[in-house]
Fold this protein.
Amino acid sequence: MFKELRYLLRKYFPFLRKERIQRVLRTRSTFRFSDRQAGKSKLLILVCGYKRPLWPYFFNRIEQFLPKDWDVCMVCPGFTKHPELEKKCEENGWSIILCYQNKISKAKNIAILNHPKAELIMKLDEDIMITEDFFGRMIALHEHAEASPEMDVAYVAPLLHINGYSYHRVLDQLNAEAEYKSKFGPLKSACVDIPAWSDPEAAVFLWDQIAPIDETAERLYRNQNEFTVCPHRFSIGAFLFKRSLWEDLNYFKHGPDGYLGIEEIQLAEHCAAESLHVVVSDEILVGHFSFGPQYNGMLEKLNEDDSFLRIGSRASGSPVARPSQA
């Protein structure tokens, strides 16, 4: 009887289907949208609002390395207004969404939903420091991985040096594994609860290994589209995916205000259920300032010397403007 009733409801009341309800709930929020999109097929989502000391370095890299064939939409979860970021978007011709609820996944869902022509989507957090030709190299890797007959791809991520999976790949290529082990213990691969995720001294050590980041990025890039496959939950501070993945998920899940990581778990579960692969570059090096437990310790390093975040070509010239104190 129950099965028959469920069939009739789905047939005659399609708006009551679970998938439809999920999508509605995952995008329902009060928000302000300053729309400057050009209807491009590639969308860059910038998640910003909370790490102001990093903005001069983060935005300088976006402005210098972003190709012209991308629409950009900044999302600011938890804000009703943000004059500084709104001005930045206006100056650059970027869209901005101020999502009143502090739900990052919901803000991303709203951005994707409001860019209907975007088929390829890159998401970057405000603490990610991209390097030269990042976007072109990531697209090339995505196309290369998708062409493989041996696997189906969920999404593609760069070689992040502060990341529970890829940090050991960076250390291996820089011959720094032994020193890391002597200071912080085994090179365990895990998304959270390891020194590369929690220890400020580990974050400082990892930054010291790749400095100067732009020179190291060019040295590690071999133009071979080499990658590994992450077998567990992956921290998605930077990742490239198709719109179809987002639709298959019925959009990204969200938790209570300020809750982080639920969409990472959702993606990991989906990849396991559907035999999808998380492709992580072995040569597209990108900087990650820190995870939350490391943030204050890394700010001390930044306040002492900001050269490790500045673009290499400017290291000996005019420095990027340092942020004023709030």
Observations:
- The chain has a mean pLDDT of 91.
